[in-house]
Amino acid sequence: MKSTARPHGNRFNIDQHPCFSERAHDRFGRIHLPVAPACNIQCKYCIRKYDCANESRPGITSRVLTPHEALERVRSLVSRNEKLTVIGIAGPGDPLANDATYTTMKAINREFPELILCISTNGLLLPDRLRELIDAGVGSITVTVNAVLPETAQKIYSWAIFNSKRLTGIEAGQIIISNQWRGIDMATEAGLVVKVNTVMIPGINDAEIPLIASLAKMRKATIHNIMPLIPKAEFEAIQRPTHTALTEMRDRCRHFMPQMTHCRQCRADACGTLNEDKDMELETLHAKIGEEYCEMVN
Questions:
Q1: In angstroms, rounded to a whole number, what is the distance separating the alpha carbons of residues 23 and 15?
Q2: Who contacts 183 (Cβ-Cβ below 8 Å, separation ≥6)?
Q3: Peptide bond between residue 92 and the one before it cis (omega within 30 degrees of 0)
Q4: How many angstroms separate the most distant Cα atoms in the chain?
Q5: Contacts (Cβ under 8 Å, ≥6 apart) of 197
């Protein structure tokens, strides 16, 4: 797995990745391709919904795409969007638990090798499937790490499916945490650019977040993104962190890791720059209409 060069060689430019660079968030765009519906972990704050146009949060998409549909979507948008630099897969489940992720990324990398390919994962399968990501052309990953202690992790995750077994409690917490850190170690060693996400859950994991930042630095992650809990599912009764509490936590963690402050907690089918939040279905429709018009007049 050892490598001295990044999988993308010198064409990976972090300053063109809106989720890794604050300077890029309104200058460059990304597309999230919702090809990954299955998930191997149940987070207590997560509800994965499809065909939902009225919410903007992780796990939401208007519909799930096949790899072929995803490639067609990229084709229809890339030719008319000069800001587009990143193709990401962030769900609505976990990308590493879906074979469609690797098929989609390989196809896009073959046709559009200039684009940055990125995935967002819970990290459970990262040690096992990292090589497949690299072979598919993925150059950057985001791993969501919410706990350091298994006792904390068991409060956040209802269950995990690993090696065809359903794990709960401390056992689930231990394997999740172990694989997350081992996967991050392997990814940075292999030359990938790694961002660590953490959901700030008041009263549950806030005491461990500075330690997460410290461990992420030790493992050569590039940036840390602390996101406020969106109260849903089993954590519906927990209050969302205040802006002041979130800012104070980021200030504490900034001593260890650069902090991302421009995250929009995007949908699994997000499109455009981070401050646009375009509807991908509408964008694709506009692209097709434009193509048909050009054919008609020509």
A1: 7
A2: 123, 125, 126, 127, 130, 143
A3: yes
A4: 65
A5: 120, 142, 143, 144, 145, 225, 227
Chain-centre distance for alpha carbon 113: 20
- Per DSSP, the three-state class of 289 is helix
- How many other CB atoms sit within 10 Å of the CB of residue 225? 22
Question: Alpha carbon 29 to chain centroid distance?
Answer: 15
Contact 124, 40 (CB under 8 A): yes
From the centroid of its chain, how far is CA 20?
11
pTM: 0.82
Strand partners, 197: 144, 225
From 176, 198, 197, select the one nearest 126 (Cα to Cα): 176
Q: Are strands 157-162 and 41-43 parallel, antiparallel or unpaired?
A: antiparallel
The rounded radius of gyration (Å) of the Cα atoms in the chain is 19
- What is the distance between the alpha carbons of residues 140 and 133, in angstroms, rounded to a whole number? 10
The CA distance from 222 to 6, in Å, is 14
State the distance between the two ends of the chain, measured CA to CA, in whole angstroms. 51
Q: Is the pLDDT of residue 247 over 80?
A: yes
pLDDT per residue over 33-88, tens digit each? 999 999 999 999 998 765 554 454 555 667 899 999 999 999 988 776 657 888 99
Summarize pLDDT for 151-194 with one digit per residue, the tens: 999 999 999 999 999 999 999 999 999 999 999 999 999 999 99
Domains defined for the chain, CATH in brackets: 12-297 (3.20.20.70)
Residue 46 CB partners (closer than 8 Å, separation 6+): 58, 59, 232, 233
Q: What pairs with residue 157 in β-bridges?
A: 43
Residue 264 has pLDDT above 90, yes or no: no
121: tokens are: 């994962």
